[in-house]
Amino acid sequence: MLSTDSTERFTGLADVYAKFRPDYPAGALDYIVERCGLAPGDLVVDVGSGTGISGRLMAERGFRVIGIEPNADMRKQAEAVLTRCVRSTLEYRDGTGEATGLAEGCAANVLCAQAFHWLKPEPALAEFARILRPGGWVALVWNERDDRDPFTAAYSKVIRSAPHAERVENHRQAAGRVLLGHPHFEETACATFGQRQPMNVEQMIGRALSASYTPKAPAERETFVAGLHSVFLEYQENGLVTLHYVTSVYAGRRR
Q1: pTM for this entry
Q2: Helical axes 201-209 vs 218-235, angle rounded to 10°
């Protein structure tokens, strides 16, 4: 979503992304607040804010949030669903993870949820360190499917049949490790949390089609969706399936 060659990957997907992507577990957000020592009113910069899922969750907890998102469709969608309770403390700006356009030392926390794998890691971490106040924290967050669950494993097999899916997913799963032991940050750590997403068939297919790498050619897309239907029929109970995730949070304190 956020590097020079990927800012347009989600153009045309903003609506389906907003409808069908999961949020983040309360335990993961609690961990970020506590680990980062955040206080009400602190500024959180939500880099790669997308349709605003993570930024809204942080604003609802009493933090000021600036979402940085280079994709105009995603940013417009985020602005369209601002709720009354967070409108005064949450705003969105055009920018990238490598060049946020924000002032040096302005932020208590840089949050990057489901987006850091699209960035150039070294320039991005340098930019995060620049905009963090002394002692400020970065938190990199991902929801990753937990294939220990049989349905989730079957769903994942269909997802990975899409062009480039394995390459993108393998890169994403390893992307947070660069923070551990990075020279710009200290007290780095990774914590994991469980998350579940119950879905009907429409929601399951929408969740799958919100990925940037799902097939676009009609014939390939038809085969892909047919595979999803087959998995749903095999595993559904009372018209629902549940996708299991492991949510990873990589955190580090600016030196």
Answers
A1: 0.92
A2: 140
